[in-house]
Amino acid sequence: MLTDDIALCHAPRDRSALEATLKEMETQRLALVDSQEYDKAKTLRHTYLQTIEEEEQQVIAKELTRQQMEAVRLTKASQMMVEAHQSKWKEIWAEGEKRWAKKLEEQEEKHELELEQLQVEFDRREALKKNNYSMQVRDMLLVEQKLLEGHNYEEAAAIRSRVKHKEAEERRGFEINRQKRKEEAIQRLQKAQEGQARQLKAHVRNEQILMERKRNKDLLNLTQLLANKKNDMHHAHCIEIQQAKAAKVSCSEAQAKREAKLKEERERRGMPHGIAPGKAATYRGSQTLLRLQRNKPLSETQSYDPENLPQPADLTQVNMLYTYT
Predict the structure, then answer these.
(1) Which residue windows are coiled coil (predicted)?
(2) What is the pTM of this model?
């Protein structure tokens, strides 16, 4: 850390005026000591320390204000990410429900068509079949034929009446048997269809469980991500305050030369303040908001903080917003 930097070198301070004032006060204090004016020297020494403390408090107050703004930005970004997560999974669930409903509807239509086709095919086949009457009816028909050959019409008429009655009775039996076989075929088909419906519902339920697990995992990952961002930024902010308190007001000439070379290296690498604003944890709130703005255009309301401060367009502006003057 350089002597004229605040915290993690993200906002250099110009202390030339302060150092000149402190140097002059120290010169005056030494003169008072030489002239044995110890009370005035003591007072001047107190003023000297108080000036340093006030400057340190101003620096820390500015840093705390910036940190509070970053916390507000991170909170807003977190809310937006949670809302985006909820919106995304709401759409996924809506699409899933449409897909599942379509599958169930298609299966129901298929089963209705199969049942209709079964009935039509059964009736067609039964219509092609001839009624196979009993031996008694066939014997009576044979007797009737013999009577007609012998011109015995009265007895043939009596046999014809009995044949009609018997055929009608057996046709009713044929129809009852046919209806019974038809109902059995329908029941077998319906039983098979019920099994298919159970399988499809189980498949849909498995898909729902899998999707629910994915949503919970996605939410857990998002929660952990937001917690990591918050913890990283809080840790960086704590370190910044500690380093701001430990920063020296002045340094030796040799140290100043070393720091000048280090600053030249920073400029060459495009990191004039010693860190990359796009990666440093201390800017996590702004980074997250900017990333959201780049990935998806936000509404005018979302593009502003509760304090109505415009979001910076790029990380260069992030750096400019938080540079102390």
Answers:
(1) 101-128
(2) 0.60
